[in-house]
Amino acid sequence: MYSEVSYKNWSIAENYYQMAIQLIPFNGNPFNQLAVIASYELKSTIAIENYMRSLVIRVPFTTSSDNLYLAIEKVKSKKDILKEKFRNRQYPKSFSKAYITSLKGDFLNDYERLISYAYGSTKE
Q1: Cα–Cα separations (whole angstroms), residue 43 to 33, 75, 103
Q2: Which residue has the higher pLDDT, 89 or 10?
Q3: Shortest CA distance to 87 belongs to which of 73, 113, 114, 107?
Q4: Which of 1, 43, 92, 103 could form a disulfide with 38 if both were Cys (CB 3.0 to 4.6 A apart)?
Q5: What is the total count of domains within the chain?
């Protein structure tokens, strides 16, 4: 069932939740629902952002904290897969090895920083 969900068109529902935000901008529920839609569409960053927004608002949607945790765990689990994918990727000969290594490092550092920020902790 879940695999079928990701192929649906959620734009109408998304528009209604955007209208709900305009009508009740202090309520976290519409942000939670937008996050759920984003997770169905496999848009992890948008889902995490909307889960956070649904929690740091005048009337938070408290169930979002569980959803946020699960979304972050899902992204964290992909870290090793991403590292392996970048390790074996083929690049044009015009790219220097140092440049490619730099790109990989920057991407993974940014990715880790996003996860650390979402958890509320930093390495510094």
Answers
A1: 13, 10, 22
A2: 10
A3: 107
A4: 43
A5: 2
Per residue in 37-82, pLDDT (tens digit) is: 999 998 988 999 999 999 999 999 999 999 999 998 888 887 777 7
Query: Which residues touch 66 (CB under 8 Å, ≥6 apart)?
Result: none
- CB burial of 66-91 (b: ≥16 within 10 Å; e: otherwise) equals ebbeebbeebeeeeeeeeeeeeeeee
Identify which has the larger pLDDT, 124 or 7: 7
| pLDDT of amino acid 114 | 73
> 50 and 4 share a domain?
yes
